[in-house]
């Protein structure tokens, strides 16, 4: 029989790229109801717990507030009766992430333009190169 690997809080934190302090905070906020404790009250994390922590990281990265992650974790504990709610939550997260991606792409477009703008100015040795370009575009637009 293979022994199931258990991780201390510091080992778990290292594996999921968080701090032990963050894991303690998550536990205090009720995000880790699944984590077992030893007789002395020391948290011991399983591989499955680490996967759940990675999911929590993912939800957090989407901007989901802790209270909503807590609600999701509560639904997980409740089992299959909350499958629809969990599904809806992920649909909402998906829409939120798609919106963030769209906004970031717009931001990237502006940054790309500024990279071109300053690269051409550096190559010309002056920002004035864009003044004549702007004037030409205005003339074409109005002409």
UniProtKB/TrEMBL annotation:
Which SMART domains does UniProt cross-reference here? HTH_MERR
Question: Which segments constitute the HTH merR-type domain?
Answer: 6-75
Looking up InterPro entries in the UniProt record yields:
DNA-bd_dom_put_sf, MerR-type_HTH_dom, MerR_fam
Keywords (A to Z) from UniProt: DNA-binding
Tell me the superkingdom of the source.
Bacteria
Matching entries from Pfam families are given as: MerR_1
Q: What is this protein called?
A: MerR family transcriptional regulator
From what organism does this protein derive?
Fusibacter paucivorans
């Amino acid at each position: 029989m293979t022994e199931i690997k258990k991780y201390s809080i510091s080992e778990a934190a290292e594996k999921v790229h968080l701090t032990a302090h963050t894991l303690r905070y998550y536990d205090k906020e009720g995000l880790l109801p699944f984590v077992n404790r030893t007789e002395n009250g020391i948290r011991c994390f399983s591989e499955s717990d680490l996967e759940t922590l990675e999911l929590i990281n993912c939800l957090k990265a989407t901007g989901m507030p802790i209270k909503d992650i807590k609600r999701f974790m509560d639904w997980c504990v409740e089992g299959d009766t909350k499958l629809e709610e969990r599904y809806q939550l992920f649909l909402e997260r998906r829409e939120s992430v798609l919106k963030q991606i769209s906004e970031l792409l717009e931001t990237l477009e502006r940054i790309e333009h500024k990279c071109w703008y300053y690269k051409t100015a550096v190559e010309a040795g002056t920002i004035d190169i864009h003044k004549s370009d702007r004037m030409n575009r205005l003339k074409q637009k109005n002409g």
